[in-house]
Write a structure and sequence with these properties.
The structure holds 2 protein chains of 2 kinds.
Chain A: H1 2-6, H2 10-13, H3 25-37, H4 45-102, H5 104-159, H6 166-180, E1 190-195, E2 209-211, H7 222-230, E3 236-244, E4 247-260, E5 263-272, H8 274-324, H9 339-395, H10 402-432, E6 441-444, H11 445-463, E7 467-470, E8 477-480, H12 482-499, E9 505-511, E10 515-522, H13 529-534, H14 556-566, E11 570-576, E12 580-588, H15 615-636
Parallel strand pairs in A: 7-9
Antiparallel strand pairs in A: 1-2, 1-5, 3-4, 4-5, 6-8, 9-10, 10-12, 11-12
Chain B: H1 2-18, E1 22-26, H2 30-42, E2 46-50, H3 53-63, E3 67-71, H4 79-89, E4 94-98, H5 103-111, E5 116-119, H6 124-135, E6 145-148, E7 151-154, E8 159-162, E9 165-167, H7 171-182, E10 188-189, H8 190-198, H9 207-220, E11 230-233, E12 237-240
Parallel strand pairs in B: 1-2, 1-3, 3-4, 4-5
Antiparallel strand pairs in B: 6-7, 7-8, 8-9, 10-12, 11-12
Helix pairs in contact in B: 3-4, 5-9, 7-8, 7-9
The chains are: A alpha+beta, B alpha/beta.
Chain lengths: ~625, ~240
Amino acid sequence: MVSATKQGPEPAAQDGAPGSGAPAPAGKSAAGHPGGSGLPPGPEHTAAVSARLRDLMFRAHLWQRRALIVSLRVARLVRTGFRRFLPALRFIGRSLHRRWRRSLQFRTVLTTLLLAVTSFAVVGAYLSNQIANNLFQERLAQAESETSYHVKQVQDTFDGAQVTDQASVITLVYDTLNAVEGRGSVIQRRYVFEAMPEQTKPRNRWVESRASDQLTVSVIPPELRKAVQESGKDQYWASTVIPVGTEDRPGIAVGNKVTFNGTVYELYLIYDLNTAQQTLDEIQSVLWAGGAVLVLLIGAVAWYVTRNVVSPVSHAAMVSEKLAAGQLQERMVVRGEDEVARLGASFNHMAASLQEQITQLATLSQMQQRFVSDVSHELRTPLTTVRMAAEVLYDARHDFDPINKRSAELLYNQVERFQSLLSDLLEISRFDAGVAVLDAEAEDILQVVAHAIEGAAPVAAEYGSEIVLRAPEGAVIVEMDARRIDRIMRNLILNAVEHGEGKPVTVTVAASQTAVGIAVRDHGIGMAPAEAARVFDRFWRADPARARTTGGSGLGLSIAMEDTKLHNGWLQAWGKKGSGANFRLTLPLRQGEEIDKSPVQLEPEDIVMPGEPGNSNMLVLGTGAAAGTVPAQEERT
Amino acid sequence: MPEGAEQDKAILIREYITMKARILVVDDDEALAEMIGIVLRNDGFEPVFCADGAQALDIFRSSRPDLVLLDLMLPGVDGIEVCRQIRGESDVPIVMLTAKSDTSDVVRGLESGADDYVPKPFKPAELVARVRARLRPGDQKAPETLRIADITIDVAGHTVSRGSDRISLTPLEFDLLVALARKPWQVFTRELLLEQVWGYRHAADTRLVNVHVQRLRSKIEQDPEAPEVVLTVRGVGYKAGA
């Protein structure tokens, strides 16, 4: 298409030169020269030369434009092709990369293949180089000995010649040289026979040069000619390329000098290396084929071997994933007695003992659960009767004499205490058995807190403490088990009232985007940091010597901690001797979310006084945080 | 059926007047049953006892109690099954006595048809309060027709219907529905419902409300998963649908 549009002005510029219509670029430029050289010489010669020059320049310009257009088109084609195949290439690259990362087998086979190809390339290159070298050296030695023989033959023939006329000299030289080519139909060697330049020309020098078919002196490398010309009677060789038929073949040219009738000639015998080249080609193709087959075989072997090793491993990985997912009856298939079979057997052994232990634990847990349930029922029924009877007696105590009256009161109070102790114990053992479940629902926590404060009001009044609630306006909706949160709050508030020495108890509620914090602060006797860390321990008492005034079981705060853990929350304590204590409950607004920061401070703001070392307080904060967060994480794992 | 209902009502009214409500105590623990008997008698009720779940239904039929106190764990037929049997033929209030306060047990009991439960160990006053709350005669019911969504409630006639289909509800479920329907603009907290429907001043267990709302929904909603009659107000409680 390009040539069609650009061809319009051409004939005019070409001065009607023949061959202007030739479509092929090669043909055109080739045709241009003979056309130009065909111009007649004479006075118009300079004009013709300048016209030819203009024509040539125009053509060069034209072809430059065409080449530019073609190259742009090719570039565009390559670019669009690249763009079209780029996603596919990228996909292939990515999937290969994924396989490389995820499949040991793929990686091993690929690495093996790469290593095999590299080593075969190195070995193959070395081998073929050695063989080529040996073949060449052998042929060279043969060529040199043959050359020295034939040169001697030719020289002898020339020396013994008794010819004087031109025809017989030419015949003699030609016959002698033809004899060098060898007998039979196959040409064994070729020759180039050339009179040495720059020598005095004798009268009877009728032969200037002579060569085998298709050869001229130009096939002889100039270096070789120079070496032969400058030496005495030494023999030199060089590699060269000779035309045979339509192809060029590698050859060795070996040269020396011969003298005939006082003229020094250079005689080069040229040996065809084609057979050696063919042998070499054959050897190389065998090497290639052998290498390819070997690489494929090695790849297959690597694939087979790694599959044999990897498939039990990936089988083991699959089985252990299933085991981890709770399918405890899953086992590996064991075949034979090799290492892999041993791995399978010991894996199965491990799985079996794991299953046994887990089943045992599950049974134990079930037994414990059943026990708790049974004790619960068996103890509660008589306790109910005792409690009702005690209350009936208590209600009628005014009709009794003082001794019976006091007994009825004691019976009533202690049955109450026994009952609360029993229910706390059962609650704790329910946590221990792992049967406590969170019955979470979105509710307003302010209502729950208010309810707990209301419930604690009678006890607070008894102690003379005032309970102050500091809470935001509106509602704070939290996904929680309101019954448990109510219990936590009641425990914390009663605990604060009990240790508050009649001073006010402050309940602070604050919420962030993710969490709600509730702090219960008293200003009573307080506690040391070490005590704050232990306050959630079961039956732990800050001061064993101090009388237990309320009928608490000693389990209240432990239960509160368990309830908090069930909510994935934090329950922390801060204390300072003489400055009271602060308990902080932090809950995530939605279950399953993490708390990163509590909206209320654990260390009360009113306690940090200027000039007072804050280190001890910070220490307590740390202990409290650890006590609160670590078990919560245990709960999750 | 109308004749029987009339008869039931007549007996109820008579006994309410004489303050001698008959209460069937189904409990295998003789000491506890006796103690409950003492307390109930002390408060002017007439207790009837049954120690075996298998006989509970027969004794229920012969004694026609006004209220049943039922232990969850019984020899023979268990409490849940007894509850289901009684509920199958009567709307009489059933209060469960449970030694287990695990949510699942409580919910199971309530779902089998109990109106309320008292966890052991309970105080005599607590038991009597619950009994009285369940025996409290319904408010004087003026002829009144309420509507929530596509539900029609005839308060005096004690019937609920969707179009021409009658829906059978227990008295407690009926009271719950009426309480919501009377003030369709109000959102009821669980505590408020406990007070208005169950008659508890101090909140007992709000799970009672949850379970009964679910049971009510399963009867009156066309799709209990997407309720239209009784709506949940997240974080607050329930309200009537438009």
